[in-house]
Structures are given as C-alpha cells and as structure tokens.
Amino acid sequence: MRIAIASDHAALDLKAALRDWLIEEGHEVADLGPDTTDSVDYPDFGYRLAEVVADGTAQRGIALCGSGIGISIAINRHPALRCALVSEPLSAKLAREHNDANCLALGARLTGIDMAKACAAAFLDTEFAGGRHQRRVDKLSAPQIEDRS
Fold first, then answer.
1. Confidence (pTM)
2. Three-state secondary structure of 40-76
C-alpha cells in the first residue's frame, strides 16, 4: 500500500520509527516531513498530507503531532479526508470499518511505539464495511443539516 506520513517537530522520532516499520512491512512510504526537530507548524504538514491522499498519490495517511489533535483538525478541513485520532487499535479498526477513515492520527506525547504500530496495523488491515455506513460517510464530504422538527 502507498502510505504518506507526516508530523510536526514533536513527533519526529515516532514518525521515523513508524516509517521504518511500515517499509519493513512492505509498504511504499512517502515521508512528507519534517526532517529536523526545528519548530514547525503542524497545519502545513497536515495540509500537505491531505493533498497527497486526496489526489490518490497515497492510498492512506498517517499524521502525527504532540497530541495528534492539531494535525487531525488540519487534515479534516479537507473535504476528501476523514482523519481519525486514535489511541488504541479498536478505534483504528472501527475508524476504517465504519467511517472509511483514510488518515490515522496519533499523538507522539501520548502513544508509545508499540501502541502506535498496533494502531497503524489495525488501520491498514481493516477494510471499509460499506452498506449502511456508506450514506453516513457520503454526508461527511457534503454536509447538510437534516431538518428533524
């Protein structure tokens, strides 16, 4: 699978470890940066990741920052992206199965490497269930408020 990975400066070490592990697992990985621990703005890297997943250059994305919150918010501003911030494998699995998440976010200050690998494996190994979930996923890219009065 083609996977894009990006982080901010706080998640550089976790990004490097996950990138190397993903390559060992046989995936093609595009590391979108950064390359140093110099302070950077997570939205810049989140937007870059969103673009390569949206245009099909990468099939899935993995986004990292200190908490995972900021970069996931940035990515979710793109209408074609569904980025799930998770901290354990079941949430990663359900994000794929029910929400067709195409990006996984993790917090480097909150998630160790073994848990990050377990989350990434669940995310990458799970297919979207479709069915009743499809209409909900479709609404994520074209929001409309349903009148329930």
1. 0.93
2. CCHHHHHHHHHHHHHCCCCCEEEEEECCCHHHHHHHH
Phi, psi of 2 (to 5 degrees): -90, 120
Superfamily classification of domain 2-141: Sugar-phosphate isomerase, RpiB/LacA/LacB (3.40.1400.10)
pLDDT tens across 80-92, in order? 999 999 999 999 9
If you count them, how many residues does the chain have? 149
Q: Judge if the upstream peptide bond of residue 79 is cis by omega within 30 degrees of 0.
A: no
Token couple for 75 = 């990515």
Q: Where are the domains of the chain?
A: 2-141
Residue matched to tokens 């390359």: 35
Tell me the pLDDT tens digit for each residue of 29-73: 999 999 999 999 999 999 999 999 999 999 999 999 999 999 999
DSSP designation for 9 = G
Catalytic residues: 65, 98
